[in-house]
Amino acid sequence: MSTIDTETARRVAKLARIRVPDENLPQLAEQLSGILSFMEQLNEVDVTGVDPMTSVTPMRLKRRPDGVTDGNIQDRILKNAPDAREGFFAVPKVVE
């Protein structure tokens, strides 16, 4: 069984950019250790002959036809733009 110490929990929190007070690190370490032990339990399950799946319910995403259109709707596309100039989206300058 893998256990995570408070120093590892501190590093994980820093990498995840989550501010965790020092007094909460032991609890975080315990929770992370619990997650790892659960994952180790999952490794014990025999999955031979089981096909991988992306969802627990059989479903298929709705599809739309991939057809070529004549386009020519620039005015409709730019209608909702906060700022459009000369037929293009105008955005603030990012680099100074």
What does it look like?
This protein is mostly helical and 96 residues long. It is 35% helix and 4% strand. The chain is built from 3 helices and 2 strands. It has helices at residues 6-15, 25-43, 74-78; strands spanning 84-85, 88-89. It has a two-stranded antiparallel sheet with strand order 1-2. A hairpin with a 2-residue loop joins strand 1 (84-85) and strand 2 (88-89). Helix 1 packs across helix 2. The protein is flat and about 60 Å long. The mean pLDDT is 90.
| Average pLDDT score | 90
Low-pLDDT runs? none
Write down the secondary-structure element order: HHHEE
Walk across the major sheet and give the strand order: 1-2
Radius of gyration: 26 Å
Sheet with the most strands, sense and barrel status: 2 strands, antiparallel
- Net shape: flat
Contiguous helical run count: 3
The percent range for strand residues is: under 5%
Q: Would you kindly provide a brief summary of this structure?
A:
This protein has about 100 residues and is mainly α. Helices cover about 35% and strands about 5% of the residues.
